[in-house]
């Protein structure tokens, strides 16, 4: 089973991917995490990527596709694609890549979240440097350490309100057309993202139970 998880910034793709990976024994590929790892390595490529991400723009398609192909080819497991494809060109490249590798996308799940929710959701978002957990803190009494592993929590550089606003514009312009690309494929489904993470997980799980 190979799943594409779509949604605007803050929709909960990372949170749901972590849960789905466990439940359905999938290999989780978050292109955002792949890019952040390249930045953390301190490489020249990482420096270029940091400038793009921190401005809230998209990394060029050719680079994304070549990075992704290496990762996909290295696993035989079913995959959950989190944050890819983000453009129609990436969606087309993904189809071509999967065909070459004798695999196919099983289902495309869109986590639908009203945009009015996005900025407030993202401003309370923190990620653990150690275990990668994503959590939402109470802004009146923010946590500083990860409740799961004690690791340091940080806010992503691209999570400021101005950057989020720009990321939403990019989402509209470049990523929403991907929804149209998949909508007629018979593999596209939307779930309501404006619910508790547990409820969203239950809704996605029901969809995936049917197609697995
Ligand atoms: P995410 O962690 O999915 O929110 O991604 C963080 C940032 O990484 C995005 O705002 C983009 O700048 C970049 N990024 C992640 N995935 C892609 C992709 N598939 N194509 C281009 N840029 C990406």
Q: List the domain count as a whole number.
A: 1
Strand order, largest beta sheet: 2-3-1-4-8
The coarse silhouette is globular
User: Which small-molecule ligands are present, each listed once?
Assistant: adenosine monophosphate
The major β-sheet equals: 5 strands, parallel
Q: What is the CA-atom radius of gyration, in angstroms?
A: 17 Å
Number of helices: 8
Low-confidence stretches: none
- Using DSSP, what is the number of strands? 8
| CATH-assigned fold name | Rossmann fold
Percent range of helical residues? 40-55%
Distance between the termini: 6 Å
Corresponding CATH superfamily? P-loop containing nucleotide triphosphate hydrolases
Mean pLDDT: 94
Which class best fits the helix and strand makeup? alpha/beta
Provide a descriptive summary of the structure in words.
By secondary structure, this protein is α/β, with parallel strands linked by helices. It has a single domain (3-114, 160-209), classed as P-loop containing nucleotide triphosphate hydrolases (Rossmann fold, 3-Layer(aba) Sandwich). It has helices at 13-24, 31-40, 44-54, 61-73, 88-100, 118-123, 161-183, 197-211; strands at residues 3-7, 27-30, 79-82, 107-112, 125-128, 134-136, 153-154, 188-192. A five-stranded parallel sheet has the order 2-3-1-4-8, with helices on both faces. It has a three-stranded antiparallel sheet with strand order 6-5-7. Strand 5 (125-128) and strand 6 form a beta hairpin. It is globular. It binds adenosine monophosphate (AMP).
